[in-house]
Write a structure and sequence with these properties.
- The chain contains three helices and 16 strands.
- By secondary structure, the chain is mainly β.
- The strands form two sheets. Strands 1-2-3-4-5-6-7-8 form an eight-stranded antiparallel beta barrel.
- A hairpin with a 4-residue loop joins strand 14 and strand 15.
- The chain is flat, with a radius of gyration of 22 Å.
- The model has no long low-confidence stretch (mean pLDDT 90).
């Protein structure tokens, strides 16, 4: 129940931040898009090979809104499109894997600066997926990919806009989709689908646009910043239906802002994870105090900025860690939202290579080091 509430908060958070950042005044232009697809499950683990029975047909139905430049990030990202998408995937194994129904906000970025009749785009999507089949010890014990009905859904898509007329365009491309629950419930190897797609977009409205004055409030008045944050998470360890483990992470990140669209940096993580007690006990090295559960990590950081929304990618190394089971390398990806006053909202996932550790949910604050305009 707790995990389902968190998932709903993520969806509301994502859709709210994207909608708030658009801020179109007086615009009634919008599109509808239908996108059939056909692909296959990418076997990232040999242990899920027995679950792959056939190819994976799919389709998407999108509500699309263009941006016009009344926000600074619209121009920075070549006037992207935003919206909400519903996706259906048939995993080709109805008895064990079933079907996926997902609802997600998205942003479509033009990868070619100048508008052309044919233009390459990239889509980022993160939302919720309901999977009709998941692991059950009695009825579906071989499904070690998915441990719960409700999962996060991530989709990356690269496609072309091909304008057929003023109202219709074709959008051929390919996509990568992922569904898992971030180890909130095990088993949780996840499902990855690679597919070819052909979108058909129809413009429902074509009205004059009343663009308000450009809002540049997302600009951070310094090239150098420090981000301090703290987040909590929960996960589960095998066997299924076992106890939940608590984690807390304190992070310190330095960033160099590059043209307000990218950030590069480094940092430190101090993690307290009660699952480490389980690891130490099973390896016959019992924890003598709570400090034995602490891990100190050093990391390299990168963030892709969309206005006040930031998509972090972090790769770190445990400089100090008594538990060794997860290996020395850790990663973090997700989404962060920065308020005008520097307050940061965090929703990220920590992993060890392709193995999810837990979701991190928390708050932070960023400080300017030099008051020099970007």
């Amino acid at each position: 129940m707790f995990f389902k509430k968190i998932q709903l908060i993520i969806l509301i958070f994502l859709f709210g931040t994207i909608s708030a950042q658009n801020g179109i005044t007086g615009s009634k232009n919008y599109y509808l898009k239908f996108t059939p697809g056909y692909g296959y499950i990418f076997e990232h683990r040999s242990t899920i090979g027995n679950l792959v029975k056939s190819y994976t047909p799919s389709f998407g139905l999108d509500f699309v809104k263009p941006t016009y430049g009344n926000k600074q990030w619209h121009k920075e990202r070549n006037f992207p499109e935003i919206g909400l998408t519903f996706n259906f995937i048939d995993f080709g194994n109805p008895q064990q894997l079933g079907y996926s129904y997902s609802l997600s906000p998205f942003v479509d970025f033009p990868l070619i600066k100048k508008p052309k009749k044919t233009r390459l785009y990239m889509r980022f999507t993160w939302g919720l997926a309901y999977l009709t089949k998941h692991f059950d010890i009695n009825t579906n014990p071989k499904n070690i990919a998915i441990g719960s009905s409700l999962n996060t859904f991530v989709n990356w898509k690269w496609y072309w806009h091909i304008n057929v007329s003023k109202q219709i365009r074709l959008e051929p491309g390919f996509a990568f989709s992922h569904a898992s629950n971030g180890r909130a419930q095990v088993p949780n190897l996840g499902l990855n689908v690679v597919s070819l797609n052909l979108g058909i977009t129809y413009k429902l409205k074509d009205n004059p646009v009343n663009v308000s004055l450009e809002d540049s409030s997302n600009l951070w008045g310094s090239k150098h910043e420090i981000l301090i944050w703290d987040a909590i998470g929960f996960n589960e360890h095998e066997p299924p239906n076992g106890p939940k483990y608590f984690s807390n992470t304190f992070g310190l990140n330095y960033y160099y802002n590059k043209k307000n669209t990218h950030k590069y940096g480094a940092g430190l993580d101090v993690s307290y994870d009660t699952q480490n007690k389980y690891h130490l006990e099973t390896s016959r090295r019992p924890a003598n105090s709570w400090t034995d559960l602490l891990q100190l990590g050093v990391k390299l950081c990168y963030s892709y900025n969309i206005g006040r929304v930031s998509l972090p990618i972090e790769m770190g190394y445990y400089a100090i860690s008594k538990p060794k089971e997860d290996g020395p390398i850790f990663h973090r990806i997700g989404i962060r939202y920065f308020c005008k006053n520097g307050l940061m909202l965090n929703a990220t996932m920590k992993s060890h290579w392709a193995v999810a550790a837990h979701f991190d949910f928390g708050l932070g604050y960023r400080f300017k080091l030099k008051k020099k305009e970007i």
